[in-house]
Design brief:
The complex is a heterodimer of chains A (514) and B (621). Chain A has 18 helices and 18 strands. Chain A has 514 residues and is α/β, with parallel strands linked by helices. The relative contact order of chain A is 0.13. In chain B, 48% of the residues are buried. The longest helix of chain B has 31 residues. Chain B has 621 residues and is of the alpha+beta class. Helices cover 39% and strands 18% of the residues of chain B. About 1% of the residues of chain B have low confidence. Chain B is built from 19 helices and 19 strands. Classes of the chains: A alpha/beta (514), B alpha+beta (621). At the A-B interface, helix 7, helix 9, strand 8, helix 12 and helix 16 of A face strand 4, strand 5, strand 8, strand 10 and helix 18 of B.
Chain lengths: 514, 621
């Protein structure tokens, strides 16, 4: 296992970006940017625009804003925007207008609907645009055997779950229906379970991803942690580090790799365990006593007695479906492409971790993962820890749920002055999911720690600057009441006022690295 | 009363039942086919179809298949005459027989070591009262997944069945049906979870990384050492390893072989002493760093299992050193080829004896554990103390073997200064910083009458089930003690001092969590009536110390008291102080570290989210 992984990793790392197409433009841009630097003596700037299209990610990066302007789109999806009401088509039009119809690169971090839905719903807009490169994680590479294995185990899991949802939601049993609804909402991340045709589950997602891979841009690149630093021609003065998804044998468990015995339920799902019962049982028909027969009720009298109801186990077998849904969700989130964008001149870093969860964050600190780059005094080594310590902009993972921002391996290392966190979220949409009120985005403990680390500079795409909601708020914000003392809030509000490089607009929020 | 001239045969002592040796996979391998079937002897009891006895009831309902399977009647003459059904994967009634046999065997091990009857987790009814649950339910075909778990809510064991992996399967048909209820190890493991939960209900709350790991490890330890009670398998494995259990792969140190291979591994689910490196079995060297870095309960539990198994191996090697010297002309190195069958028998006898001793030590140590927040280090102290109480003269140095095995894995109790037997043994109250008041110890006198009643209730002999009587008696003792203590702890300086001694905060309510009596042979050979009491308290504290407005959790503390009713003396008070700031801080840090479970995001508050701490644990989410 170990050797295969390493061999595959080497092969894939050879597939670095082919720069042929961009070579000519690079020369022109370097000249332009260099010229500008010489005249103004300024650092190359970058603007991050977080769109407010709801519970989903859509970020447009503009390098050298107001100058040569190169645009990179990171994700484009939503599960709904109740709070702002901003539609995907409006956002797509905004992207086209801002970029002048030309995207130098599109990054799709992982195949979850809240990150990709727009590539399907606004396909015409993208067809009319000029997209250069498409960057995907190595886990999306159809030529990578390991990626194929992971994808097929996710697909099997999804198929089994979709069947389970279909069965559960049609049962005349409240607990079963409730579980079915909760599962369906988790599966919405994978494109949803089509009404009436559960077997078509995943098709919408697969189609969309196929389009992203083959038709969206002129070239598609699959990125791998540990590959040489990217220095794209369209963003002179910037380096891009690929931190994840991990590929080593240990961390890959978190991707739901079928070979891992701890996740043997994946295997069970593949053999149909989570699917509704076929007609048979594991034994010959002659052993079966149908549950609805009167004679069976006599045999099971002790078990079926009303006073023994607390011990009955009619639905316990279905609960595995719940855990399988979580595995599917974790596995997909952990395939997130993780990028750290560094401004060479002052080392400031913008961090885009997709929805990577704890296992991925920890893998970035693998001692084997480091990069050698040119420094002022010769080559120097850069580690993920260095990048986190220099992070000034953090795109908060998974809508600030509690499980997608590592503490010790992540947030606690982000020590730069002026750290700003952007949270793409629509809390109203999240809380509306089944079971109601359970999807806590942002999670209270994380929201508080973010406010502390960023000294208040935390922006949410649904409401703008994080604010002291106090006691008199609606129920959506109630759980976040009293996140800080009034002294803290007054300090945090001052910091927010002074952060003039962050601008909250009706349809987006801008962050400017001057 | 029998009429004159008639003959009433005496009740049998044992019921013999056939079962798979460890699991069905032994039958399909040439080298183990000979020992693939064993006969288990369980204590005799009358059974109704199920089987349903005094401790267990097998209910074979399979909701996923929308059917049930007819219960087996083990008291049927045809089955009594042939030691039950012959092993068969395709007959559900044999499955019922095997789960009953293995679970009964496990209960017997437990009761023999503890020297008293065991209870299952009681049912908590309205008002916080508890009612007696006489029988553990066993559902041999409850789940369609590669999983089996103990459900504390239903006081039931649920076993799953699944299709074996399509790839890399060693000894079974790819895709074949695999039943977890036919694995001795899985049944013994889950039964032990239920037994341990019956003793310590709070060991389900993961207040530190060791608690759930302890549950898993303990269940594995009991399952492992039960291998040594099958003489056929033991002799076979001693012969095939030529007595070298430590350095060669054997079934003795492995758990759930068929399950592991069917789930796609090339080896058993867990192995106490070895691992596969590039497909070759090698013994694992203990690594003290693992204890500091491993959090996953099964993996962390494996460290404790390895420590106990290591201690066992040292004891076994010590017990057999003379035999090996004799058989090898003093070289200690056996020559090539098989070892003499007589030597196999003698080594097997020593191994069985050592295993029985170690298992007894491990189970008895439970009486010396704190009622909440247990750590591996405290378990080591419990082991040492329990053994010291039972065997004064440690001529074979069992205790040293344990201490050494734990030390090699970096498991130390937090508060001791050295790893000697004296400093590991729980301290007697006389050496305590806050010794108890005389009134507290005098109060033990009032419990002597209860102890008397308890002893005779345990003996049985009446129509009521003795365990039901014992349970009622325990309830009475709990109420009695609670009444007396709650007045005492709030009365003046002596009360305050005793509250500190017991690890309680007198301003909060507390619970007498358990009260049991045990009659043990003391060091002088006399019978010593012992009282075992656990006190428990919950204090609300903020989950996140930095966010006082953000919700609270219950911080638990209390103690286990081991008292000698003969001398009216508290021997040990094993304390987890509810006012301990350090412990609270560690617990909050641990809670913050483990809060990342995704289940909390999508399913919090869902009705199915309640209970089942073992289900998800075993699924690896």
């Amino acid at each position: 296992m170990g050797t295969t992984t390493r061999r595959a990793a080497r092969a894939a790392s050879k597939a670095t970006l082919s720069e042929a197409g961009a070579a000519k433009r690079r020369a022109a841009q370097v000249a332009r940017a260099g010229g500008a630097d010489n005249q103004r003596g300024a650092l190359p700037g970058v603007r991050v625009r977080m769109f407010r299209q709801g519970l989903g990610d859509a970020f447009l990066l503009t390098f050298d804003p107001g100058g040569a302007e190169a645009h990179v789109l990171v994700d484009f999806g939503t599960l709904g925007a109740t709070t702002t009401g901003v539609s995907m088509s409006t956002t797509a039009a905004d992207i086209a207008a801002t970029s002048g119809g030309r995207l130098d690169a599109v990054v799709v971090t992982h195949e979850h609907w809240d990150h990709i839905s727009g590539f399907r719903s606004c396909a015409e807009t993208f067809a009319a645009m000029d997209v250069g490169q498409v960057w995907l994680a190595w886990t999306e590479n159809p030529d990578d055997p390991l990626a194929r294995t992971l994808a097929s185990s996710r697909r099997d899991l999804g198929a089994a779950l979709a069947m389970t949802v279909a069965t559960l939601t049609t049962r005349h049993d409240r607990a079963a229906t409730a579980l079915g609804r909760a599962l369906r909402d988790v599966l919405a991340f994978s494109g949803g379970v089509p009404e009436g045709s559960p077997l078509a589950f995943g098709e919408r997602l697969d189609d969309t991803m196929h389009g992203v891979r083959t038709a969206l841009g002129r070239e598609t690149h699959y990125l791998l942690p540990g590959q040489p630093v990217l220095e794209p021609a369209f963003a002179p003065g910037f380096r891009i580090y690929v931190l994840g998804p991990p590929r080593d044998a240990d961390a890959i468990d978190d991707l739901g790799h079928a070979g891992d015995d701890a996740l043997y339920a994946v295997r069970a799902a593949r053999s149909g365990a989570a699917a509704p019962p076929p007609d048979g049982s594991p034994f010959d028909t002659r052993f079966r006593l149908p549950l609805d027969a009167a004679t069976t009720r006599d045999v099971l009298a002790g078990y079926l007695a009303p006073r023994e109801q607390w011990r009955q186990i009619p639905r316990h077998w279905m609960r595995s479906a719940r855990d399988l849904a979580l595995q599917l969700d974790n596995a997909t989130n952990n395939t997130s492409l993780v990028l750290a964008i560094e401004r060479v001149a002052d080392g400031k870093v913008l961090l885009f971790p997709g929805d990577a969860q704890l296992g991925s964050w920890q893998s970035w600190h693998d001692p084997a993962l480091s990069w050698t780059v040119a420094g002022a005094r010769g080559p120097k080594t850069v580690t993920a820890g260095d990048l986190l310590r220099r992070t000034v902009f953090y795109k908060v993972g998974h809508h600030a749920s509690h499980n997608a921002t590592a503490r010790q391996a992540g947030l606690e290392l982000m020590a730069a002055d002026g750290l700003v966190a952007f949270v793409p979220v629509d809390r109203r949409v999240a809380l509306g999911r089944h079971p109601k009120g359970s999807w806590r985005m942002p999670a209270r403990a994380l929201a508080r720690r973010l406010l502390e680390r960023c000294r208040g500079r935390v922006v949410r795409s649904d409401i703008g600057w994080m604010a002291n909601s106090g006691a008199a708020v609606d129920e959506t914000e109630a759980e976040l009441a009293g996140l800080g003392s009034s002294a803290e809030w007054s300090r945090w509000r001052t910091a927010q006022r002074r952060a003039t490089h962050v601008r909250v607009e009706p349809r987006w929020v801008d962050y400017l690295l001057r | 009363m029998a009429r004159p001239g008639t003959f009433e045969p005496p009740d049998p002592v044992f019921r013999a039942l056939r079962a798979y040796g460890l699991d069905p996979s032994l039958a399909t391998r040439l080298d183990t086919a000979r020992v693939s079937e064993v006969t288990i002897r369980v204590p005799w009891e009358p059974l109704t179809p199920g089987p349903i006895g005094a401790y267990l009831e097998v209910v074979d309902v399979d909701p996923a298949s929308d059917c049930a399977y007819a219960p087996i009647d083990l008291d049927h003459p045809a089955l009594l005459a042939q030691d039950g059904l012959a092993p068969s994967e395709g007959t559900p009634q044999f499955h019922q027989q095997m789960v009953y046999a293995v679970a009964s065997l496990t209960i017997r091990q437990f009761e023999r070591a503890l020297g008293r009857k065991t209870f299952w987790r009681p049912r908590t009814v309205a008002g916080g009262n508890v009612t007696f649950v006489p029988r553990l339910r066993i559902h041999p075909h409850a789940l369609r997944e590669a999983n089996a778990y103990y459900s504390p809510d239903a006081v039931a064991l649920l076993f799953g069945y699944f299709n074996a992996s399509e790839e890399g399967s060693g000894d079974h048909l790819p895709g074949a049906q695999v039943f977890t209820c036919l694995s001795h190890d899985i049944v013994a493991h889950e039964t032990t979870h239920a037994l341990l939960d019956g003793m310590y209900r709070r060991f389900l709350s993961p207040t530190n990384p060791d608690v759930l790991a302890f549950h898993e490890a303990f269940a594995d330890i009991v399952a492992l050492f039960q291998h040594f009670t099958f003489p056929e398998i033991l002799r076979h494995q001693i012969a095939s390893t030529r007595g070298q259990i430590r350095s060669l792969e054997s079934l003795l140190g492995q758990l759930a072989g068929e399950f592991g291979r069917a789930a796609g591994r090339r080896t058993a689910l867990r192995d106490a002493i070895g691992t596969l490196v590039d497909g070759v079995w090698v013994p694992v060297q203990p690594d003290p760093r693992l204890y500091r870095t491993t959090d996953q309960p099964h993996e962390r539990g494996a460290i404790l299992v390895a420590a106990v198994f290591d201690a066992f191996l040292s004891i076994y090697e010590r017990r057999t050193a003379d035999l090996v010297r004799l058989a090898t002309q003093g070289t200690g190195v056996p020559g090539p080829g098989a070892i003499h069958p007589d030597l196999v028998h003698r080594l097997a006898a020593e191994a069985a004896k050592a295993a029985q001793h170690v298992l007894t030590m491990c189970i008895r140590a439970l009486d010396y554990c704190p009622p909440v927040d247990v750590t591996f280090g405290e378990y080591l102290r419990a082991l040492v103390t329990a053994d010291l109480d039972l065997v004064r003269d440690d001529d074979l140095e069992y205790r040293i073997a344990f201490i050494e095995a734990f030390r090699r894995r970096g498991i130390y109790p937090r508060e001791v200064r050295s790893l000697s037997v004296e400093s590991l043994c729980w301290r007697s109250p006389a050496l305590d910083e806050t010794p108890p008041s005389a009134r507290l110890e005098d109060s033990l006198e009032r419990l002597r009458a209860h102890a008397q009643a308890y002893m005779y209730a345990e003996s049985g002999g009446s129509r009521t089930e003795p365990r039901a009587k014992l349970f009622d008696l325990e309830q009475r003792v709990r109420h009695d003690l609670h009444g007396w203590l709650s007045t005492h702890l709030r009365s003046g300086a002596a009360g305050r001092r005793d509250a500190a001694f017991l690890g309680l905060d007198p301003s909060h309510p507390f619970e007498v969590h358990g009260a049991r009596f045990a009659h043990r042979a003391g060091p002088d050979g006399n019978i010593e009536p012992q009282l075992l009491v656990s006190l428990l308290q919950q204090v609300p504290v903020p989950i996140d110390p930095a966010d006082p407005a953000g919700g609270t959790m219950a911080f638990e503390g209390g103690c286990t008291i081991v008292a000698d009713l003969w001398h009216r003396r508290i021997r040990y008070c094993i304390r987890k102080h509810v006012g301990s700031v350090d412990r609270l801080r560690r617990q909050q840090a641990f809670a913050a570290r483990t809060a990342a479970a995704t289940a909390r995001l999508y399913f919090a508050g869902h009705p199915d989210d309640a209970g089942e701490p073992f289900a998800a644990l075993h699924r690896g989410v």
